[in-house]
Amino acid sequence: MGAVTETSGPRLNLLIRGGTLVGEQGVWAADLGVRDGRIAAILAPGERVAAAEVLDAAGLHLLPGLVDQHVHFNEPGRTHWEGFETGSRAAAAGGVTTVIEMPLNSHPPTTTAEALELKQTTVAGKAVVDYAFWGGLVDDNVAALPALHAGGVVGVKAFMSHAGTDDYPYATDHVLFEGLKTVARLGTVLDLHAENDSLTRGYAEQLRAAGRIDRRAYAESRPPVAELEAIERGILLARQADPNARIHFVHVSIGDGARAVERARRDGQPVSLETCPHYLTLDEDRFAEIGPDAKCAPPIRPRDVVEDLWACVLEGLVDSFASDHSPCPPEDKSRGDQDIWLAWGGVSGVQTMLPLLLDEGVHNRGLPLPRLVRMASANPARIVGLWPRKGHLGLGADADIALVDLARTWTLEPNLLQTRHPVSPFIGYRFRGAVIQTLVRGVTVFRDGEIVAPPAHGQFLRPLPGPRAPPVVGHG
Ligand SMILES: [Zn+2]
Questions:
Q1: Which residues of the chain have pLDDT under 50?
Q2: Please, which residues have CB within 8 angstroms of residue 455's CB and are 6 or more apart in sequence?
Q3: Are residues 229 and 119 in the same domain?
Q4: How far is the CA of 102 from the centre of ligand 1 (A)?
Q5: Residue 195: CATH number of its domain
Q6: From the CA of 229, how far away is ligand 1's center (Å)?
Q7: What pLDDT was estimated at residue 90?
């Protein structure tokens, strides 16, 4: 750490001077040089070097830009819910420099090579951060996976329960099993929403038949057992389908789920998981107060479950964080004010992910900064096959950087949100820790509350060739 390293070549385009670098291995004072969009020098503080532009980062920490492997921008088809333009601006404002966009909630869903092509042409030139896509595995398209893979998706996403929109049927166990064989053969990853459909559907029907329309009824309809059973089943199906079948569990909300994944990992299975800031910062009592803006699936859990999930995060059992940013127009939330079943389920969160992790994780819970970087930048990049180009402060990596002020306190007001609709369960939340500036490939896209990206700066990314580095877990 602190060694002076520099690639040879002409003078630097940019020198970020006086800041503190945060990598997976540690935190250290260094100056960082950028050439042609990549990190070209990591220098002892104050080292004399020629650069076209100098950025003063005194008092700021430099994190590798976050890689959010779970966003729904809903384009094409439901761009009025979000879209790549506003969604990627929100990402930039939150220090997220790469987003991986989900195959559902857009229409058509990304379940065929044709739909992938349509998505690529529709969103081209709209993003201010870099982006990649998940393909979709639904009830009838295992045969389409090789073409989706060839088209550049980072993996395929499947549901084990109803997905919230009728154009994205959940995968039966038969489809999952056959899909996992194909995923292993292609060397890609299955991204899995693990909730048991029979349990969630059965409880929802029972509670609604009893006249329950309150917020806690929604939480009751999706109990932890529905999530745990589906995680255990997914692990079993993957193990039986192919020992190399890679599986990633999205938005795990229970510590028992993380422990189930940990057991499989110890048995040598290539399995990983993410959790989301809202499962770590809200609880069922807060959900009952906030209502529809905090409705999501799995639901926000009771306080003891939240504390147990935190224990797993701090123990190093959880690979990664993701926002599961899933916004909608305000009326799709407010119609559930009195009857929670009527509200769209999804939390808008790409802009608040890093501030929440700094505030609740680093400041309140002692999450070490290098671990935050591993879980929010490096491991997501590994899981989707973009590491070490993304999620990494090292020579040759893309100069994707979030400059944060750990000490700055601020309150989230609706006008600060860059999303299409100013909806968030964190309006009014007082944060310690703020994103001051965001760079994508060495170019500033966000600074002091404003989007300043040049037009069409965000680029489409394919996974890097070759086998994927496994995510790093545990202490240290
Ligand atoms: Zn999602």
A1: 1-2
A2: 125
A3: yes
A4: 7
A5: 3.20.20.140
A6: 19
A7: 98
